[in-house]
């Protein structure tokens, strides 16, 4: 881990990470490749299993018929990590184990043939929490099923795995149930530029970071490489925090999710003050309650990609009660976002830009610090405005996105490069437009001034 960080015991939270020197907003605090990682099952056909790039056409592993790669270079580089997994996958075909089972197996393979030194890690897997003792019986049962699946999966592919594991793995990682519990509690979701889940990975040192509903750091990915950046100025000895969950939700819902998934009660400032709850529930309860009740149905339609039905439901809701609910209302915001997704999928660009523009002032209120979700939303809306030739609006939106993305993603990230190119395109188009309509002013225009 970088020299400006150290491990410490955070009061009331156990292990944590703090700064040893001041860290400025936008600074890269830490960057790491995963100890083990795998592409999520739901995108397994669309993403390269080596570099995690999304592509239209991918080569398929001829043996397991599951792993897919950009080209033979990615396939060759992936082979040492995929060799044992490939056998396991073949043995279970056509069944494919869940993401957490595949990840746990990849972790075991990585530990059986360690290639990189992990000496600089602040935190090792042995120390990871499994939370088994504080878990509900129901949850433990679910994990037991995954552990049996893991054993079955390993048995076929690595017949002598029990002996091998005993000699190569630390005691706390040998027992399948405890290993699966550690993996599910400590894995990170790897997302692409649009913040869509593409995989899961284990980054042991980063599991030390504690949660805050208004964190001072955010994580973004470049392929499988995790980058941790400060989104606030951090003082020496101040604790570094990230958010484990989607922060755009009510205090009560955040706390329930943190308790269920991560086994602790959040006492952060946002939770104690219930900051933003009132804003999220703005409007008359009698009207937004109908949106709240309809939300699961619309989410199900979204999950099925049933965009037409989703938009019809939304127009119906909008005409009955939606108009009376302020845009800041959380349920209305979620639905407007879904209507944006649906309109994009159906190619209704005018509608999409309308929905997108409605969400921007609301995002500004809910994300006081630079946040990837806010940056990505601005980029989506900017691209729609650009496509519809609302060039000046697009440039303004891209500029606002840049103020966020340069902090959350840094100057070298492909998203930042893409954004700078979009801004250049807008500027060039504006120069061209004004030269077409106002030929005399053409000579005076300095593109740098726009
Ligand atoms: Zn690749
Ligand atoms: Zn294979
Ligand atoms: Zn909190």
Automatic annotation (TrEMBL):
Gene3D superfamilies: 1.10.220.160, 1.25.40.970, 6.10.140.2220, SET domain, Tetratricopeptide repeat domain. One of its GO terms (biological process) is methylation. Residues 48-86 form the MYND-type domain. It is an enzyme of class 2 (transferase). Keywords: Metal-binding, Methyltransferase, S-adenosyl-L-methionine, Transferase, Zinc, Zinc-finger. Residues 3-245 form the SET domain. Its EC number is 2.1.1.354. Pfam families: SET (PF00856), zf-MYND (PF01753). It catalyses: L-lysyl(4)-[histone H3] + 3 S-adenosyl-L-methionine = N(6),N(6),N(6)-trimethyl-L-lysyl(4)-[histone H3] + 3 S-adenosyl-L-homocysteine + 3 H(+). InterPro entries: H3K4_H4K5_MeTrfase, SET_dom, SET_dom_sf, TPR-like_helical_dom_sf, Znf_MYND. Transmembrane segments: none annotated. GO terms for cellular component: nucleus. GO terms for molecular function: histone H3K4 trimethyltransferase activity; zinc ion binding. This is [histone H3]-lysine(4) N-trimethyltransferase. The gene is smyd3.
């Amino acid at each position: 881990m970088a020299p400006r960080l150290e491990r410490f015991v955070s009061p009331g939270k156990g292990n944590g990470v703090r700064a040893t020197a001041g860290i400025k907003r936008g600074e890269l605090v830490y960057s790491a490749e995963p100890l083990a990682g795998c592409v999520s099952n739901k995108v397994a056909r669309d993403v390269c299993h080596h570099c995690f790039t999304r592509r239209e056409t991918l080569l398929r592993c001829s043996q397991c018929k599951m792993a897919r790669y950009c080209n033979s270079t990615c396939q060759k580089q992936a082979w040492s990590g995929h060799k044992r997994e490939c056998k396991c996958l073949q043995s279970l075909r056509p069944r494919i184990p869940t993401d957490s089972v595949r990840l746990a197996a990849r972790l075991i393979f990585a530990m059986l043939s360690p290639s990189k030194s992990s000496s600089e890690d602040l935190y090792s897997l042995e120390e990871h929490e499994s939370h088994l003792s504080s878990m509900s019986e129901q949850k433990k049962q679910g994990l037991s099923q995954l552990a049996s699946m893991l054993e079955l999966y390993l048995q076929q592919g690595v017949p002598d795995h029990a002996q091998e594991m005993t000699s190569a793995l630390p005691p706390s990682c040998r027992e399948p149930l405890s290993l699966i519990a550690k993996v599910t509690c400590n894995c990170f979701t790897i997302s692409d530029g649009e913040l869509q889940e593409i995989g899961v990975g284990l980054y042991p040192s980063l599991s030390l970071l504690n949660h805050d509903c208004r964190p001072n750091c955010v994580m973004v990915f470049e392929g499988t490489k995790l980058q941790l950046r400060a989104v606030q100025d951090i003082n020496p000895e101040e604790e570094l925090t990230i958010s484990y969950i989607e922060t755009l939700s009510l205090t009560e819902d955040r706390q329930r999710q943190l308790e269920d998934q991560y086994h602790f009660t959040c006492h952060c400032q946002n939770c104690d003050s219930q900051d933003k709850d009132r804003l999220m529930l703005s409007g008359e309860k009698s009207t937004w309650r109908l949106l709240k009740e309809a939300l699961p149905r619309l989410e199900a339609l979204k999950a099925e990609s049933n965009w037409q039905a989703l938009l019809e439901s939304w127009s119906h809701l909008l005409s009955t009660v939606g108009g009376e609910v302020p845009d800041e209302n959380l349920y209305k915001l979620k639905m407007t976002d879904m209507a944006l997704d649906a309109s994009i999928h159906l190619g209704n660009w005018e509608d999409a830009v309308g929905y997108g523009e409605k969400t921007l002032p609301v995002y500004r209120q809910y994300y006081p610090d630079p946040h990837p979700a806010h940056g990505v939303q601005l980029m989506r809306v900017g691209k729609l405005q650009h496509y519809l030739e609302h060039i000046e609006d697009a440039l303004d939106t891209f500029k606002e996105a840049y103020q966020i993305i340069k902090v959350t993603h840094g100057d070298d990230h492909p998203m930042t490069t893409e954004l700078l190119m979009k801004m250049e395109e807008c500027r060039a188009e504006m120069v061209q437009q004004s030269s077409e309509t106002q030929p005399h002013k053409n000579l005076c225009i300095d593109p740098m001034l726009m």
